[in-house]
Design a protein that fits this description.
Blueprint lengths: L15 E8 L5 E8 L2 H10 L3 E7 L10 H16 L4 H11 L3 H15 L4 H6 L7 H13 L2 H56 L7 H37 L1 H11 L5 H22 L4 H11 L3 H15 L4 H8 L4 H13 L2 H57 L1
Antiparallel strand pairs: 1-2, 1-3
Helix pairs in contact: 2-3, 2-7, 3-4, 6-7, 7-8, 7-10, 7-15, 8-9, 8-15, 10-11, 10-15, 11-12, 12-13, 13-14, 14-15
């Protein structure tokens, strides 16, 4: 399918996206997409290309959601598969863009394709969208274009992103599970306090006797919930929103969070293994693509996903740039266990650094999987005990007066 080139950009009016259908000078029906400031400009641009336009339709420009990291990972695999299969690059963008259900992703791919059509290389087109394509992604694509092995490096890049996405999902799932349980426990408790306990309170008032201490405590908490529920829920929302905004705006808070997270019991060890897995996977991918070590380290620190490892990588990069070996620099950094530095030393001595880093990443990714599974096995009985104790305690406190009344009647 042929596609018309992008109209020259002009200062002023915003460009719109159009889909078109028409015939070329040979009478062949052609279809495509074009960006222009209006229908007249789109028609003029197509006529200059020898296209006799029969249909021209403006594309909807709604927000259409957002482009997630998962979308970029899937796009990487699809593009790698098609380029490796011999599908032309522009046609690959067309296929992926029209096959996605995410309008935001489709627009992003159309914009990149338009840049490539006007003469930009693929790496330069990706670099215009740093929010979606980081330095590592662009550097690998550029290396592939220069060496004539774009299909190979796209495949390697897709594999890398899939592995990183998988380990992120594992960590996110492990952290989300206990938080979700706490939220559910709070909601159940709030419902009991606001709706159930007041009903029991009316029944207890008819007894006329003195209520047990646990029952009085639960009733007092229920009265507080009932009278101030809007303040409680509003306060919780305000605290969560305030903390999230503070973390977004304050670099110091983000740094403190990253440092503290690595020292957490149970979770800390898992986060360290995750950071090492991502660090070694990223460096392995970059080095295998032929990117010089010092330059590759620019992308590695951020890929680890933790400020501590970002700063450690800068220290390693500074030492390597002055002549130190990677092994010595990593040992001086103090963030990597002996097993990692030994694997790197073997890789440097044998000339197979990328392979050794890849095997190290495989090992730590497996360690993360085991840690997440072990955490889930540990959390399940703890959560059952917590929920059972909470809900059971409330039920017993409410039924104590009834038991007491039954014993008196008996």
């Amino acid at each position: 399918m042929a596609t018309a080139g992008k109209a020259d950009k002009k200062e002023g009016p915003k460009e719109l996206s159009f889909t078109w259908e028409g015939k070329n000078k040979a009478g062949k029906v052609m279809r495509g997409e074009i960006k222009a400031v209006g229908e007249a400009a789109a028609n003029a641009a197509l006529r200059r290309q020898g296209i006799n336009v029969t249909k021209l339709k403006k594309q909807k420009t709604g927000s259409g959601g957002k482009v997630s990291d998962k979308d970029i990972t899937l796009f990487s695999r699809q593009l790698a598969t098609m380029v490796k299969s011999g599908v032309p690059l522009l046609q690959s963008f067309d296929i992926v863009g029209k096959g996605t259900n995410n309008p935001a992703l489709a627009k992003l791919l159309f914009d990149i394709k338009s840049d490539v059509e006007t003469g930009s290389n693929l790496a330069s087109a990706f670099r215009k969208y740093p929010m979606y394509f980081d330095a590592l992604f662009c550097n690998l694509v550029e290396a592939g274009e220069q060496a004539g092995i774009l299909d190979t490096l796209l495949d390697r890049l897709a594999t890398y992103k899939e592995k990183i996405q998988a380990i992120k999902a594992k960590i996110k799932g492990a952290m989300t599970y206990p938080i979700a349980i706490l939220i559910i426990a709070f909601i159940i408790t709030a419902v009991i306090m606001i709706f159930v306990v007041p009903a029991f309170k009316g029944v207890f008032a008819s007894f006329g006797g003195e209520l047990p201490a646990p029952t009085l405590i639960v009733i007092a908490i229920s009265d507080f919930f009932t009278a101030n529920w809007y303040l409680i829920f509003g306060g919780i929302y305000a605290v969560i929103f305030g903390i999230s905004q503070a973390f977004k705006r304050s670099v110091a808070l983000q740094i403190a969070k990253d440092k503290l997270s690595l020292k957490l019991p149970v979770f800390g060890d898992m986060l360290v293994k995750s950071a090492i897995a991502r660090w070694t996977r990223t460096l392995s991918t970059m080095f295998a693509a032929g990117v010089p070590l010092v330059e590759a380290l620019d992308s590695v620190g951020g890929a680890a996903g933790n400020y501590v490892y970002t700063m450690g990588t800068k220290q390693i990069q500074a030492e390597v740039s002055t002549g130190s070996s990677l092994t010595v620099a990593m040992e001086n950094c103090g963030l990597f266990p002996p097993m990692v530095t030994q694997m790197v030393a073997i890789g440097e001595e044998s000339g197979q650094l990328d392979s050794m880093l890849g095997k190290t990443a495989d090992f730590f990714e497996a360690e993360v999987d085991e840690a997440v599974d072990a955490l889930a096995s540990l959390m399940e009985p703890m959560i059952m005990v917590f929920l059972g104790g909470l809900i059971g305690g409330l039920v017993v406190a409410m039924y104590l007066p009834i038991f007491k009344l039954g014993s008196v009647v008996g």
